[in-house]
Design a protein that fits this description.
single chain, 14 helices, globular
Length: about 290
């Protein structure tokens, strides 16, 4: 058996506890989706369920499937994983309006006995308003991306399962923040006018392009682990690195440019009505402050 086939065969180990968590989140979301579907079929339809389901399937593929194991010997595969975690999974999950469906899907004892007092806390509301401000969402996403792709941090994640998990968690968390103002899942309200999301996405794509170009055109192996790793797909370490940069550049840029073009078209074709952005947009639904979820 050649090294490529052997590496791929030996990687078929499914992470059971992550799989269980993903399944549990699907059950809770599905329960909440059904309740919301019965209440507001005009606002909460099948597209929300399908988007969330696609996001969860992609999440399983990224971190609980054999893809995760192959990332240790191929930077190209590792970059596919990062693109999924930062640019594919978060938009899909947010298109499902998960904050609303998950809250409705929880047992009433947990929702009203535990979460409602916490979510109604004024300091927490202020913290959430600060955290979900588009400027802070952008900074968190870009800073996390650049920090974890430095050689020191990247190698730390490769050599430690704990730090690898921290890396993936930070990627997913900051990406959910980043895509929140872009998707603006119902029923949250925008903090910025819609046109402001265009430079928001453009500047994020600029840093993505710079990082990917560095990987493509660098004449040395940036991450030493991959210089000594078994070769798969018949590529040298430098070819693998260049392929990783191309993955980040082309699909990664498309993830920014497609919604940017869509928003541009919507802004240009919209009527002249001015929409004043909300000064306070708390990302949780009103029932947390006094309503009920039946």
């Amino acid at each position: 058996m050649n090294s490529s086939a052997e590496a791929l065969t030996n990687s078929w180990n499914i992470n059971s506890w992550i799989t269980a968590l993903i399944f549990l989140s699907l059950v809770i979301y599905g329960r909440g989706w059904w309740k919301l579907r019965q209440r507001r079929p005009d606002y909460f339809g099948s597209r929300h369920l399908l988007a969330f389901l696609a996001g969860e399937i992609a999440l399983f593929f990224a971190i609980a499937s054999p893809l995760h194991e192959v990332t240790e010997i191929s930077l190209m595969v590792h970059m596919i994983q990062h693109v999924l975690l930062m640019m594919v999974i978060p938009p899909l999950i947010l298109l499902g309006a998960p904050h609303l469906a998950v809250l409705f899907g929880l047992p009433n004892a947990i929702l009203h006995g535990v979460l409602r007092p916490i979510l109604g806390c004024t300091p927490l509301k202020r913290l959430m308003l600060l955290l979900f401000h588009p400027v802070n969402c952008w900074i968190a996403f870009v800073a996390t991306t650049l920090a974890w792709h430095t050689p020191v941090m990247f190698e730390l994640a490769l050599r430690s399962e704990f730090w690898h998990a921290v890396e993936h968690t930070s990627f997913l968390a900051t990406a959910l923040l980043f895509w929140w103002p872009v998707i603006q899942p119902w029923p949250s309200r925008a903090r910025w006018p819609r046109w402001a999301i265009i430079p928001y996405l453009f500047l994020a794509d600029f840093q993505n392009t710079a990082l990917s170009a560095f990987l493509i055109f660098c004449d040395r192996v940036v991450y030493p682990t991959y210089a000594a790793a078994p070769r798969i797909f018949g590529m040298s370490a430098l070819e693998d690195q260049a392929a990783a940069g191309a993955i980040m550049w082309v699909p990664g840029s498309c993830a920014f440019l497609i919604p940017m073009l869509w928003i541009t078209m919507k802004v240009l074709t919209s009527d002249c009505r001015s929409v004043r952005p909300s000064s306070a947009s708390f990302p949780f639904p009103p029932f947390c402050e006094g309503g009920t979820a039946k």
